[in-house]
Amino acid sequence: MAIDQWASALLTPLACWILLNGIDDLILEIAWFFLPRTKGRQRVFEPPARENRMAIFVPLWKEHRVIERMVAQNVGSIQYKNYDMFIGAYPNDAPTLAAIEEARKRFPNVHLAKVPHEGPTSKADCLNWIYQRMLLFEEETGARFEMILTHDAEDVIHPEALHCINKHADTYDMVQIPVLALPTPWWQFTHGVYCDDFAQVELFDMPVRQSLGGFIPSNGVGTAFSRRILKRLAIAYNNRIFEPGCLTEDYENGFRVDWMGGRQIFVRLGAPGEPILATREYFPRKFKAAVRQRTRWITGIALQSWELHSLWETFGQLYWFWRDRKNLIGNLVSPLANVLTLYGLVRGPFPVTTFSQSVILSTLALVSVSITIRAFCSARVYGWGFAAAVPLRMLWGNWINGFATVMAIYTYAMAKVHRRPLRWLKTEHTYPNRAALVEHRRPLENILVDSGFLEAEVLRAALASKPVDRPLAAHLLKTGVISEKELYTAIGLEQNLPLGKPEEVSMPVTRSFPAKVSRRWQVLPFKVMAGSLHVAGTEPPTEEMHDELRTFSSMEIRFQLVTPTEYEELSEEYLPKMSA
């Protein structure tokens, strides 16, 4: 049959490529096996005598649905005081600007960096303008930031991450905190591919790369740069610290820092059983969104990097560039190999030469080793139950990467043919729900003391006298050791909820819920903004409350905390009087 002939003709070169790729991987697998298991691992960081001032950069384009929650969650959980957050947005993105303004009202260390032209341009361009806004802030206030971190709108920053960075600030010019996907059910294969990918990168690829002298590519999030290296980058690249024409400016900056002699460190994950210090986030869960995101990654890393650097610049890192670019071929080969394998299973074995048989058997052995290591890494983070599906997710990932590679080649070629710049291929982001953030929430007791609302001795006395069946907040109010406003400010930080009586209330919106429902749950709808219904209430929303309120509105419900006194004032003014 003609199909058999084609299959036989393709099988040997495909197997040879996979074998070559497997031998390349085997070199690192052997190196990984002999790596010291404790060198460079994370440690519990005691608060230092001096906290270097840090700036967190967050570039945005149409992120109004997540940015408020991202800011509230991270400001409420980060156990580091000396930092500011600069959030970049474009003038033609009004909903995102409005969301940033809401965040600024709540948190004095949050600042807007408005890009002076319409977007989207590129993430790097937005970051450059955020940097300029930071410089202006320094001129206006006399502040000076020693470390600059980059993050995205969907990131959950680990509470100890800034302490970890601060520990390395005087020694290293770039500190990379690990990045891991938040866990999702095993049957969500697309997101599961990201879980496996990042677990393998952070536990296997990056430690080996660092130990063998390879440059550390920035992940774009959880990356801290020293002020001294940013100054050198600004001089060397005409104030374009982040390359505006590059779709993977993070990868590019990782190489630039190394090439300029800057010291880099990847903070390895701790030993099994220890807490994981990493930036966590959700990645795309749908095939199309994953292809879109990976198209950007492949375009920047495997295609644009060729034109940005000469052979002389990259000579010392040629092996690592080969490692990063070889997937341009491998991503196209893997789906084709999967098809031939499936055809062989359905059709039955077709004739191959002895040489081909030897290559195929060797390839299968190397692939088995790679699958085992990938499963081990995935199990280290998500457990063996999740890791059991690694082989199936690898097949699914092959098709995601294959389509993304085709799109990257096409997009890049069309941009060159038509001489137009490549645009920011933004991925739609979602922010974790409240349940997913529990592990990063600071206890109310810690917030009360750290924020200066209560002395530690006063809190200990209150805890000792508290009846078992009385909530701490109610006991503190009853004993009079704290004011209602101070207590609710701390609760707002603990629960990642905005606090304060609404300045403007829409009377039609207050009728979104029946009055008896509003009174039972002590909530009051007060405005609709960016497709969300904003509701003021005296308690953090429970699942039962949220489910009932959702029966009266199809919009996303955003909660805002008010004190009982403020709620009584609101209900008196806006809710119908109760009949006697």
CATH homologous superfamily identity of the domain at 54-285: Spore Coat Polysaccharide Biosynthesis Protein SpsA, Chain A
> What is the spatial order of strands in the main beta sheet?
3-2-1-4-7-5-8
Task: State the share of residues found in helices, binned by percent.
Answer: 40-55%
Anisotropy-based shape: globular
Strand tally: 12
Largest sheet: 7 strands, mixed
Number of helices in the DSSP assignment: 23
CATH secondary-structure class of the domain at 54-285: Alpha Beta
Q: Rg from C-alpha positions?
A: 27 Å
CATH topology of the domain at 54-285: Spore Coat Polysaccharide Biosynthesis Protein SpsA, Chain A
Mean pLDDT: 86
**Uncertain segments of ≥5 residues (pLDDT<50)?**
none
Distance between termini? 89 Å
Strand content: 5-15%
Outline the structure in words.
The protein is an alpha/beta fold and 580 residues long. Among the domains are: 54-285, Spore Coat Polysaccharide Biosynthesis Protein SpsA, Chain A (Alpha-Beta Complex), CATH 3.90.550; 442-574, GMP Synthetase, Chain A, domain 3 (2-Layer Sandwich). Helix content is 53%, strand content 10%. It is built from 23 helices and twelve strands. The strands form three sheets. Strands 3-2-1-4-7-5-8 form a seven-stranded mixed beta sheet, with helices on both faces. The protein has a three-stranded mixed beta sheet with strand order 10-11-12, with helices on both faces. The longest helix has 32 residues, at 2-33. The chain is globular, with a radius of gyration of 27 Å. The model has no long low-confidence stretch (mean pLDDT 86).
